[in-house]
Recover the amino acids of this structure.
């Protein structure tokens, strides 16, 4: 099994380096400079060591990159859209991996310490204060963070046998080596583009009524794992110009009548997300077979232009889902429950992974590629990823099944009773029977009063008088329920959140203006102002006395 260690960096005002810690399960060391730290870890005796930093891709690695580049070794940058996953460094006979543990365990270190019942607790630090290297409390804080992260990963490694780079790759490894039997058709680049652009869409997030009282907030128990219990497409698809009943398929259709859905399955996908719309006679949409069946059941007239169906199907994920759902429900402790939940929710997206990705590489003089960083001679190279199962059509079918299950639940509740929905949740004014089985509904909150402005932007006061505000992209403490109410009633035109943040690795090379503070190429601090406005564009707003506004779908030609 691969050896690992943990590290963490402390800095003043985010980017002014102060100290770095190192723990390998036996001894803790602290260093006053990155050079001393790297001189210690980049040693032949440590070759093959993987050093984890929690949230390293968005923070700690920004300190390391320049130091590593200055050593003149070779770096492999392993990244994703939100930042770096790993820096793999080669120097002479030594290879050291610096990995982001957040990609493997996506929660705050404080939450993980609680979940894994680690004795080394977080020591609270006032990060607005300037600290010297000699500060004993800061050193103790650093030591506890390094040791607690190591102990968390050690528990996970003993449980799983090995640690993968991300939670999705851990799920895929477990699926392939412990549960998978059968065949999966690996798509070509052309087929990947076809299924990805036309059929791979996320979950439904919509606002139906802006305001309500005496409501109920429900979640679906493991929605995506639930639909993964169903048969999945296997083998190569067959092209067709007609609907093939009882076969999984993907179809381009033309409506032969106008539709008047209140909650529609007809989807337009663009850069702003999914729009669920109504169509006119002659409008063209792309639907899976489960959505086609819905149109047939609703007696909507349409014709097939063309499509693909799968002659074969199989229960690809049944054993995997049942195993981890049983682990989740019957977990002996929070650690087991937490990891089982991660395994349940992390697998399907791996099948939708893009075949190609933009990779940062050091210039070797081979090929003509766009420059990422001219100072350090780094290039942007588009490369094909090493992917075991290239099955975006499977991910597309799973998301389609999930949207349909979600819609069926809303129809069962009564669509006129729905106020807001997210991918696997529903807020309505109807009390319904809950069910702790997979795919059933569980109660999250009973709501005295709620406001629903935008997708992922809502707030409510629960039956105990507790205020809950959820505004995606903003700090949880930035806005109050009353702030949202003032937006809704047009007493305020906008809400602002001011702060500062560190630019991400790729951002550093793109942005040169309005830098508040910098420490080299990859450590740049900027002031931020984010504005929240009550501008809902996914559905049409209609004034309503009781609900302030209600909404209805756009027509396709209005998007």
């Amino acid at each position: 099994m691969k050896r690992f260690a943990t590290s963490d960096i402390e800095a003043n005002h985010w980017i002014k380096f102060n100290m770095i810690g190192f723990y390998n399960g036996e001894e803790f060391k602290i260093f006053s400079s990155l050079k001393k730290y790297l001189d210690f870890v980049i040693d032949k005796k440590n070759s093959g060591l993987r050093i984890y930093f929690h949230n390293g891709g968005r923070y700690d690695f920004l300190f390391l990159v320049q130091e590593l580049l200055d050593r003149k070794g070779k770096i492999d940058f392993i990244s994703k859209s939100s930042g770096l996953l790993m820096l793999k460094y080669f120097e002479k006979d030594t290879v050291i991996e610096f990995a982001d543990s957040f990609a493997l365990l996506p929660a705050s270190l404080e939450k993980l310490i609680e979940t894994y019942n680690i004795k080394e607790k977080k020591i609270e630090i006032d990060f607005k204060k300037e600290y010297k290297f000699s500060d004993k409390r800061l050193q103790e804080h650093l030591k506890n963070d390094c040791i607690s992260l190591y102990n968390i990963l050690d528990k996970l490694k003993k449980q799983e046998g090995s640690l993968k780079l991300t939670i999705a790759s851990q799920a895929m490894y477990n699926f392939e080596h412990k549960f998978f039997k059968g065949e999966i058709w690996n798509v070509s680049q052309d087929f990947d583009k076809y299924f990805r652009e036309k059929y791979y869409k996320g979950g439904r997030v919509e606002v139906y009524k802006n305001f309500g009282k005496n409501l109920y907030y429900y979640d679906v128990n493991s929605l995506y794992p639930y639909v993964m219990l169903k048969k999945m497409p296997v083998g190569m698809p067959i092209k067709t110009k007609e609907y093939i009943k009882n076969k999984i398929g993907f179809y381009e259709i033309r409506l032969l009548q106008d539709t008047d859905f209140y909650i529609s399955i007809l989807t337009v996908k663009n850069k702003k997300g999914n729009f669920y719309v109504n169509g006119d006679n002659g409008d063209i949409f792309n639907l899976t077979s489960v959505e086609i069946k819905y149109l047939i059941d609703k007696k909507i007239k349409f014709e097939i232009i063309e499509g693909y169906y799968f002659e074969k199907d199989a229960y690809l994920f049944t054993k995997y889902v049942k195993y981890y759902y049983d682990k989740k429900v019957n977990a002996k402790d929070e650690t087991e429950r937490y990891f089982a939940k991660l395994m349940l929710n992390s697998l399907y997206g791996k099948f939708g992974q893009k075949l190609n990705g933009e990779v940062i590489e050091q210039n070797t003089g081979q090929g003509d590629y766009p420059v990422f960083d001219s100072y350090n001679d780094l290039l942007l190279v588009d490369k094909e990823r090493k992917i075991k199962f290239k099955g975006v059509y499977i991910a597309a079918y799973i998301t389609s099944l999930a949207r349909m299950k979600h819609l069926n639940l809303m129809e069962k509740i009564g669509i006129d009773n729905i106020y807001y929905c997210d991918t696997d949740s529903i807020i309505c004014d109807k009390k319904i029977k809950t069910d702790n089985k997979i795919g059933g509904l569980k109660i999250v909150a009973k709501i005295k009063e709620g406001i629903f402005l935008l997708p992922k932007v809502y707030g409510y006061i629960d039956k105990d008088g507790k205020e809950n505000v959820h505004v995606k992209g903003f700090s949880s403490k930035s806005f109050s329920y009353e702030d949202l109410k003032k937006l809704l009633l047009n007493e305020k035109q906008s809400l602002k959140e001011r702060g500062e943040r560190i630019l991400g690795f790729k951002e550093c090379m793109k942005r040169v203006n309005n830098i508040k503070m910098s420490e080299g190429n990859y450590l740049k601090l900027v002031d931020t102002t984010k504005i929240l406005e009550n501008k809902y564009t996914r559905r049409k707003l209609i004034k309503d006395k009781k609900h302030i506004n209600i909404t209805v779908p756009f027509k396709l030609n209005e998007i």
User: Anything to note?
Assistant: The chain has a mean pLDDT of 94.
